[in-house]
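Trying the structure run again after the queue cleared.
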Amino acid sequence: MQKKIYIDSVEKKEDGIYLIVQSHSFSLENAKAKRYMLVDSDHLSFIYIMEVGDEFVYVVMPQHVWPNLKEAMLTNIPVFLKSNEVVIELEGMKEELTYLIGNIKGNANYGDEMEKAVTEMFSV
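Done. Tokens:
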């Protein structure tokens, strides 16, 4: 079973966008960004995959985070995950999101609701 953490809030700073996680039951001390993302159509979320030791951690980014992801894509600013004192750059975010968004638009395999939400948010 994969461990999941959910983004609680977002902070914009000069050097990037910080996705804030308030609480979870495991350490992210040695977490590594995997440069890979998935889609959770049932919960209208994007998921960034990280690795901690020999386990995967899913960073769940629900719709309330999407405007910030769009801003990061359009301005080429980095996106970071911040949990307590641990800050990790979510490397490859722009490339992965661009790929997923391109796949989702007009594709009913992701479900009508996900396709509509992504198209409305990320149409430029």
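The chain has a mean pLDDT of 92. Worth checking whether this holds up in the mutant runs.
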